[in-house]
Amino acid sequence: MVNLKKRVSTVIAGAVVAGGLMFGGATAAQAVTPNYSVGPFATVSECEAAKITYISSWTKISQGCTYYPQQGGFVDNGYYFHYRAIA
């Protein structure tokens, strides 16, 4: 009987530890990387065609083709897309 109580308490303690690890904030190890701008492109279709070449297991498109005028750090008018590296 004593052995059974000890076994049950060991199983319960193991379940508590496993639950704590599972729900206690264990997150995937993924580093935050900066966004990179690609462009300018004269048309949306040119931008979309170039965007496909940046899709890989190492990169992720973070914003699709968007028109930006010449302001706010963008040197030329045109369509840009943004991607980031997946670490």
Provide an overview of this structure.
The chain contains two helices and three strands; from the N terminus they run H-E-H-E-E. By secondary structure, the chain is of the alpha+beta class. It has a three-stranded antiparallel beta sheet with strand order 1-3-2, with helices on one face. The longest helix has 22 residues, at 2-23. The N and C termini lie far apart (53 Å). The mean pLDDT is 77.
Please outline what is shown here:
With 87 residues, this protein is an alpha+beta fold. The protein is built from 2 helices and 3 strands.
SSE layout and pairings?
Blueprint: H1 2-23, E1 35-41, H2 44-52, E2 59-68, E3 78-85
Order of helices and strands: HEHEE
User: What structural category do the secondary elements indicate?
Assistant: alpha+beta
Give the fraction of residues assigned to helices.
Answer: 25-40%
- Let me know the number of strands: 3
- Overall mean pLDDT stands at 77
Low-confidence stretches: none
Strand content: 25-35%
Biggest sheet: strand arrangement: 1-3-2
Distance between the termini: 53 Å
Biggest β-sheet: count, sense, barrel? 3 strands, antiparallel
Radius of gyration: 25 Å
Query: How would you describe the shape?
Result: elongated
Provide a count of the helices.
2
Name a few traits of the molecule.
36% helix, 87 residues, 3-stranded antiparallel sheet, 2 helices, elongated
